[in-house]
Amino acid sequence: MSAIDQLFTQLRASKKKALMPFITAGDPSIETTEAVLRNLSAAGADLCEVGVPYSDPIADGPVIQASYQRALDQGFRLQSVFDMGKRVASDVTMPRVTMVSYSIIHRVGTEAYVKRAIEAGYVGAIVPDLLVEEAEAFSKVCEDADFNLIQLVTPTTPKERQVRIANSSSGFLYYVSVTGITGERTKLPPDLQESVQWLRGQTDLPICIGFGISGPETAATLAPVADGLIVGSAIVRRIAESNGTEDAVKKVSEFVGELRTAIDAA
User: Which residues of this protein are catalytic (predicted)?
Assistant: First the structure.
């Protein structure tokens, strides 16, 4: 049983929902990213998604796109994510996954990427641009290493394809709440609950909802529907607006605490 499997088993037993912040590695510096990461668990996060900056955005909205570009302009390299993972391994016990383009994984080599990620303390990867038709080989590599391959389902994904994606995924399914790119929103689709409930009947995997969660109110609305919530742009924006590392840690920790309170109350 992977670390993510263990986490969701524990959360379900205690009737809690997972809170997963997203942070961009290297924005505005890898030192700030590391400091924020070290404080997330105490603030109320259950696991963390670390974004690997990439020059060609896949489904990222303007806030995350800008954070990726800032990190790349600062000289970010993939090894920075792995080095940071090793530095925090003894202190950060919550599961950590990378959000990474498959083109990066392919360039490194599937087995090599998984090996390096595991050595750095990561337990899985969210791969938004991996087609289900091409996922079988990488899914097998991940399965053999007990490394979770987390894939995305969108509102426009045909139902038969949703099932195929679920069958080649592990850890949890990332359910994209809206059609379009990442970003904070005040309204979400009215049929979201029905769509997630249908998918829940097709798989035993936990379903985590991301895209569009702007604050405690949105989180409270979605908490009863999902097994977990992923919050990205709202956190990345707070880091971008911060005045130094200490302020970034404070702003993110306070916001994550507010999300935690809202999710638990819901």
Answer: 49 (proton acceptor), 60 (proton acceptor)
Please tell me whether residue 236 adopts helix, strand or coil conformation. helix
**What are the catalytic residues?**
49, 60
Give the angle subtended at the CA of 143 by the CAs of 17 and 193, to the nearest 5°. 30
The token duo for 97 is: 């996954």
Name the packing angle between helices 30-43 and 245-265 (round to 10°).
Answer: 30
Give 3-state DSSP helix, strand, coil % of the chain, rounded to 5. Answer: 50, 15, 35
Under 8 Å CB-to-CB from 110, ≥6 apart: which residues? 137, 138, 141
Tell me the domain boundaries of the chain: 3-265
**Distance between CA atoms of 4 and 9, rounded to whole angstroms?**
9
* CA separation, residue 118 to residues 95, 127, 218 (Å): 11, 16, 33
Q: Could you tell me which CATH class the domain 3-265 is placed in?
A: alpha beta
CB 146 within 8 A of CB 170: no
pLDDT in tens, the chain (266 residues): 899 999 999 999 999 999 999 999 999 999 999 999 999 999 999 999 999 999 876 666 789 999 999 999 999 999 999 999 999 999 999 999 999 999 999 999 999 999 999 999 999 999 999 999 999 999 999 999 999 999 999 888 999 999 999 999 999 999 987 654 444 444 556 678 888 989 999 999 999 999 778 899 989 988 998 999 999 999 999 999 999 999 999 999 999 999 999 999 98
Residue 23: what are its φ and ψ, rounded to 5°?
A: -135, 145
